[in-house]
Design a protein that fits this description.
The complex is a heterodimer of chains A (about 325) and B (about 280). Chain A is α+β, with helices and mostly antiparallel strands. Chain A folds into two domains: about 230 residues, Rossmann fold; about 90 residues, Nucleic acid-binding proteins (OB fold (Dihydrolipoamide Acetyltransferase, E2P), Beta Barrel), CATH 2.40.50.140. Chain A is about 25% helix and about 30% strand. In chain A, the strands form four sheets. Chain A has a six-stranded mixed sheet, with helices on both faces. Chain A has a five-stranded antiparallel sheet with strand order 13-17-14-15-16, with no helix packed on it. In chain A, strands 2-1-4-5 form a four-stranded antiparallel sheet, with helices on one face. Chain A is globular. Chain B has about 280 residues and is mostly helical. Chain B has a domain of about 170 residues: MetI-like fold (Orthogonal Bundle), CATH 1.10.3720. Helices cover about 70% and strands about 0% of the residues of chain B. Chain B has 14 helices and no strands. In chain B, helix 1 packs across helix 13, helix 4 crosses helix 10 and helix 7 runs antiparallel to helix 10. The chains are: A alpha+beta (about 325), B mainly alpha (about 280). Chains A and B meet through strand 6 and helix 2 of A and helix 8 and helix 9 of B. Chain A: Keywords: ATP-binding, Nucleotide-binding, Sugar transport, Transport.
Chain lengths: ~325, ~280
C-alpha cells in the first residue's frame, strides 16, 4: 500500500504552464522530498497528487489504481499544511477525530485512535484545548495527528516546518523522520530547504521550472549531480562555478568545486588560485570564507572553525582535483 | 492610542453626539408619545410633548380594527422564512464564489448587486402578472418568495465577504480528511463563518420585516404583514394620528427589541474582518 505513479502529468493555469510534463514513480514506504526554488511547481505537484488541483492531462496512479479524476476525499491520502490548517472551532480532540468521523468510525475506535495519536505526539494533556491556545510546534503536531489517525496510503507534507523557529524546526524534522521509520508509510515532503531534503529523504526530486532535474538519493545528488542546476542547488554553502579558460583546462565548458573541496594556504604554490578574503563567517565548528579570486570572482570556502584568516588576507586555493565537477555548454554533467 | 484632546473638545463632541443621536431618534420618540395620547390631543394646534391624558385606548382600537396579531404572525413567517430560504440558497452560492471562483465571478456579483439599483416599481407589472397567474397574490408563500429574491443579492454579498476571510487551507484540509462537499460546508465552513452568518440573518430579518413596497402591492387582507398593517391606518383615515402611532409602535416593537438584544452580534458581524 502506498505506491504513487505520475504518468506524463501536465498542469497549466490559463496560459501559464506550471508543469510541462512529469513522470515519476514513488515506491511504497519511501520518504520522497520535492525540493526546488520557489515557483518551481513543487507545491502544485503535491496538490495534483492530493487532488486539490486537477491535472491538465496525464494520469495519477495510487497503488496502481487510476485516481486522476478522484476527489481528494476518496484518494486515501493525508496532508499536513504549512499553515497547519487546524479547525479553529474544534478542540484538539475533535480536530484529530474529524477524519475518523468523516469515515463514520465507531465511537470506541475514534477514542482509541485519538488517544494513541495523542500519546505518540505528546498531546495527551492538550486534548481539550482549542488550537489558538497551542504553540506553533503543538499545532503542527495536531496537524500530524489528524493525518496519522486516517492510516492513509501516503502522507503529503507541504512545507510543514516553514512557520516554526529554527530550533523547533530541527526537532520537528527529527520527529517526522522518526515517525516515518515507525509507520513505514509513504511520505512526500515539499520544501525549499535543501538541508531538510538532504537529512530526511530516501530519495529527492529536484524540481526547476516544473521539470524534474534529477531524482535520486541525497548522496547521489551530492556526489553525482546530473547538471549544473542540481549541483548548485544541493549542498550548503553552494558550489562554486568557474567558466572560461580555467574550465577549458579540464575539457569542460564550466567546472564546479564545492566549498568543502579546497585546500587553503598562505604560501603561493604554483597552479593555485590567488584571492583575498572578503568576509569570514565563523560558525564555531566551521568557518565560511568568501574569497575574491583574481579573474574568477567570488568563491565560498568551507574550512575548520579554528582557522585564523580574516578580512583582507591573501589566500591561495587549490581545488581537490578528484572532486571537480565538469559541465558542458548545456549545463549537463560530463 | 494616546491622543492630546482637551476637555473642552471632549465636552463639545459629547454634546454634538448626543444632539445628533436625539435628532435621529426624535421621530420614533414622537410616535411612542403620540401612541399614548387621545386623537384630539394628537392633532391639537399647540402640540403637547408628554401625553396630557395618558390612554391605552388606541391599542385596543387598532387591534379591534385590523387584528395586530395576525399581521405580526405574517411578519414573522415572511421575514424568518425568507431569510432561512435565502441562507439555504446563499450559502452554497457564496461558497462557490469565494472558494471556486471563475473569470466571471466578479461579473456575477456585480450583476446581482445591479438588480438592487433598479427601483422596485420598474418590475411591478411583470411580477404582479406572474403572481396573479401563479395564484400567489396575497399568500404567505408568494410574499416569502419575493422577499427571498429581493434580499438574496445582499445575503450572497455579505456571506461572500465573510467567506473570503476564511483561509481556503482549512477547507482543503477538510477535503483531505475525507469530507465531501456537504460535510465541508456543514462541519467546517458554517461553524467558522457563524458570526457572519448570524449577522446576515439578523440584517435580513430586519430588512424583510420593514419591507413595505411589495408587501402592500402584493397582499390585501390575508397575507398582509405589519407594514401593510401600518399603511392601512395611514391613507383613508389620515387624521387618526394617535392610532397610526399606536399601530407603528406595535409594528416596530418586536424588531426593535430583537435589534436591541442582538446589537453586539450585529456590530461584530458588520465589522467582521475589518481587523485581523
Amino acid at each position: 500500500m502506498g505506491s504513487i505513479s505520475l504518468r506524463n502529468v501536465k498542469k497549466s493555469f490559463g496560459d501559464v504552464q506550471i508543469i510541462p510534463d512529469i513522470s515519476l514513480d514513488i515506491k511504497e514506504g519511501e520518504f520522497v522530498v520535492f525540493v526546488g526554488p520557489s515557483g518551481c511547481g513543487k507545491s502544485t505537484l503535491l496538490r495534483l497528487i492530493a487532488g486539490l488541483e486537477d491535472t491538465s492531462s496525464g494520469t495519477i496512479l495510487l497503488d496502481g489504481e487510476d485516481m486522476t479524476k478522484a476527489p481528494p476525499a476518496r484518494r486515501g491520502l493525508a496532508m499536513v499544511f504549512q499553515s497547519y490548517a487546524l479547525y479553529p472551532h474544534m478542540t484538539v480532540r475533535d480536530n484529530i477525530a474529524f477524519p475518523l468521523k468523516m469515515a463514520k468510525a465507531s465511537k470506541e475506535e475514534i477514542d482509541r485512535k485519538v488517544e494513541y495519536a495523542a500519546r505518540t505526539l505528546n498531546l495527551s494533556s492538550y486534548l481539550d484545548r482549542r488550537p489558538r491556545a497551542l504553540s506553533g510546534g503543538q499545532r503542527q503536531r495536531v496537524a500530524i495527528g489528524r493525518a496519522i489517525v486516517r492510516e492513509p496510503k501516503a502522507f503529503l507534507f507541504d512545507e510543514p516546518l516553514s512557520n516554526l523557529d529554527a530550533a523547533l524546526r530541527v526537532n520537528m524534522r527529527l520527529e517526522i523522520t522518526e515517525l516515518h521509520q515507525q509507520l513505514k508509510t509513504t511520505m512526500i515532503y515539499v520544501t525549499h530547504d535543501q538541508v531538510e531534503a538532504m537529512t530526511m529523504a530516501d530519495r529527492i526530486v529536484v524540481l526547476n521550472a516544473g521539470n524534474v532535474e534529477q531524482f535520486g538519493s541525497p548522496l547521489d545528488l551530492y556526489k553525482k549531480p546530473a547538471n549544473r542546476f542540481v549541483a548548485g542547488f544541493i549542498g550548503s554553502p553552494k558550489m562554486n562555478f568557474v567558466d572560461g579558460p580555467e574550465a577549458a583546462k579540464h575539457n569542460a565548458h564550466s567546472i564546479g568545486v564545492r566549498p568543502e573541496h579546497f585546500l587553503l594556504s598562505r604560501e603561493n604554490i604554483p597552479g593555485t588560485w590567488k584571492g583575498t578574503v572578503g568576509v569570514a563567517e565563523q560558525l564555531g565548528s566551521d568557518t565560511f570564507l568568501h574569497v575574491h579570486v583574481d579573474g574568477l570572482g567570488l568563491m565560498t570556502i568551507r574550512t575548520d572553525g579554528d582557522q585564523t584568516f580574516s578580512h583582507g588576507d591573501d589566500v591561495y586555493l587549490t581545488p581537490d582535483a578528484t572532486r571537480i565537477y565538469r559541465f558542458d555548454a548545456a549545463g549537463l554533467a560530463i | 492610542m494616546a491622543r492630546n484632546v482637551s476637555v473642552q473638545t471632549k465636552i463639545g463632541f459629547t454634546i454634538a453626539a448626543w444632539a445628533i443621536a436625539l435628532l435621529l431618534f426624535s421621530p420614533i420618540l414622537w410616535v411612542v408619545l403620540t401612541a399614548f395620547k387621545t386623537e384630539a390631543e394628537a392633532i391639537a394646534n399647540t402640540p403637547t410633548f408628554l401625553p396630557q391624558n395618558f390612554t391605552l385606548e388606541n391599542f385596543g382600537a387598532v387591534q379591534d380594527r385590523s387584528d395586530y396579531f395576525k399581521h405580526a404572525f405574517n411578519s414573522i413567517v415572511v421575514s424568518v422564512g425568507s431569510t432561512l430560504l435565502g441562507l439555504l440558497i446563499g450559502i452554497p452560492a457564496a461558497w462557490a464564489m469565494a472558494f471556486a471562483p471563475t473569470k466571471r465571478t466578479k461579473d456575477v456579483l456585480m450583476w446581482m448587486l445591479s438588480t438592487k439599483m433598479m427601483p422596485a416599481v420598474g418590475v411591478l407589472i411583470p411580477i404582479y402578472l406572474i403572481f396573479r397567474d401563479l395564484r400567489l397574490l396575497d399568500t404567505l408563500q408568494g410574499l416569502t418568495i419575493i422577499m427571498t429574491l429581493i434580499n438574496l443579492p445582499i445575503i450572497i454579498w455579505m456571506l461572500y465577504t465573510y467567506f473570503k476571510e476564511i483561509p481556503i487551507d482549512i477547507l482543503e484540509a477538510a477535503r483531505m480528511d475525507g469530507a465531501e462537499l456537504y460535510n465541508e460546508i456543514v462541519h467546517v465552513l458554517i461553524p467558522m463563518a457563524l458570526p457572519g452568518i448570524a449577522s446576515t440573518l439578523l440584517l435580513n430579518v430586519i430588512l424583510a420585516w420593514n419591507e413595505a413596497f411589495w408587501t402592500i402591492t402584493l397582499t390585501s387582507g390575508r397575507a398582509g404583514t405589519l407594514t401593510a398593517f401600518i399603511s392601512s391606518f395611514s391613507s383613508p383615515q389620515g387624521l387618526f394620528l394617535a392610532k397610526l402611532s399606536a399601530a407603528s409602535l406595535l409594528a416596530i416593537a418586536p424588531i426593535l427589541l430583537m435589534g436591541w438584544f442582538s446589537q453586539k452580534q450585529l456590530v461584530r458581524g458588520l465589522t467582521f474582518g475589518a481587523v485581523k
